[in-house]
Every structure is written in structure tokens, then in C-alpha cells.
Amino acid sequence: MRVLSVLLAVLASSSLQSLAAPVPEARQVPIDLRRTTLVVEDMERTLDFYRDALGLKVVYDNVIRTPRNAGSDDDAERSLRLVFLEANDDYIGLIGVIEYRKPIKPLPAEKTTPFSIGSMVFVFNAKNLDETFARASQVPGVNVLSEPEETSYPSYDGSGTIPVRVSVLQDPDGYVVELNQLLVDSPR
Questions:
Q1: What CATH number has the domain bearing residue 135?
Q2: CA nearest 132: which of 87, 84, 185, 67?
Q3: How far apart are CA 4 and CA 29, in angstroms?
Q4: pTM, whole model, 2 decimals?
Q5: Which residue from 50, 121, 43 is spatially nearest to 82, judged by alpha carbons?
Q6: Would you give the DSSP letter of residue 114?
Q7: Of 48, 122, 131, 178, which is least packed with CB atoms within 10 Å of its CB?
Q8: What confidence tens digit (pLDDT) does each residue in 13-36 have?
């Protein structure tokens, strides 16, 4: 569990940057990260987690069929449902979710081990970690990796620490989600 705490410290320290202001124009690079898209088995179960438990807002929800004039999944060669969820920014911080409906994608032979090479971790700052964690941990298929606990990380300038409550779980499709709550107004 100590190794997990160290890993969480590294991950949470990167999430603290999400509270910072936009990058000044003089320091901007020529690319923006707009969205991360997840391929999921069951869209409704995924929405139970990200929309209902975490509180993200659905901003796009459509079925995309090929050929484009196919009126139903029966008429289509391929069909998928694509949903975009947003937190507090409509340009960055979007999560896309795809459920393949035709043909249905097979489940992977093995689930990815959390915090292993090739795995990914979403980091969310929650205003009320206890309430958010309680809702999220009750969604069917969610696996709790660690309950909320307080820890601290070195401050940006190294002169002190930043207190944070951290928890980790896996969503119904196995993606790792860190839910944390800063215990100070500003991490700097």
C-alpha cells in the first residue's frame, strides 16, 4: 500500500496543476489536448459512473452509422454510440465514450493492471470527496483500490507541503480514476 501511496503522490501532484490559470500565450505550444476517448462495453453503466456519480455533463450523444444514411443499426454495416462529457471547461477536459454496437467489440482477454505500463489514470478534483466517492463506489462494476485518505505533497517551490485527500478506484471498464480534494485554496 505504501508503493500505491507514492504513486498517488506523483499523480496527484500533476493534478494540482489543473487549478492553474491558462498557459500565457508566450508559453503556449502549437497543440492542445482536447479529449480522451474511452472504448466501453456498456454506455449506460459508464454514464452511471461519469455522469451520475461524478457529475460530468453530457454535451454530445449520438449514434453514428456507416453508411451515413442508414436509418437503423439493422441497416448499417457499422454503428457506434459516441458521448462527450465535460467537467468545467468546454474546450479541454472532455471525456469521449464510445460503445461499439455493430459489430460489437470483444472484451479484452486480460484487463490492464492498474498503474502498469500502458495503463492510464484519470485525475479528478472533487469539491466534496466523501460524497463523490460514496456515489462512485456504489456504481455496479466499480472496484475501490483505496478509500479517501489524507496525504501531503511537496509544494511547487519546495517551501512546504500541499495537503490533499486522495482515493482511487476503477470504473466499470477497468479505467483507473483518482478522486482527490485539495485541502487548501491554492496549491502555490
A1: 3.10.180.10
A2: 87
A3: 32
A4: 0.81
A5: 43
A6: T
A7: 131
A8: 444 444 446 778 898 898 878 889
In the chain, the amino acid numbered 178 is E
Q: Measured between alpha carbons, how far is 58 from 84 in angstroms, rounded to an integer? A: 6
Q: Is residue 10 part of a domain?
A: yes
At 96 the pLDDT is: 95
Q: Say how far apart CA 65 and CA 70 lie, in whole Å.
A: 6
Task: Give the three-class secondary structure for 134.
Answer: helix
The residue whose grid cell reads 449520438 is 62
**Across-strand partners of 162?**
153
| DSSP code per residue over 56-84 | PEEEEEEEEEESTT--STTT-SEEEEEEE
What is the arrangement of strands in the sheet containing 57-66, beginning at the earlier edge strand?
A: 35-39, 94-102, 78-86, 57-66
Site of grid cell 462494476: 141
Nearest CA to 5 among 176, 146, 175? Answer: 146
Q: Residue 188: inside a domain, yes or no? A: no
Print the domain residue range for 146.
6-19+33-182
Q: Going by C-beta distance under 8 Å and a sequence separation of 6 or more, which residues neighbour residue 72?
A: 65
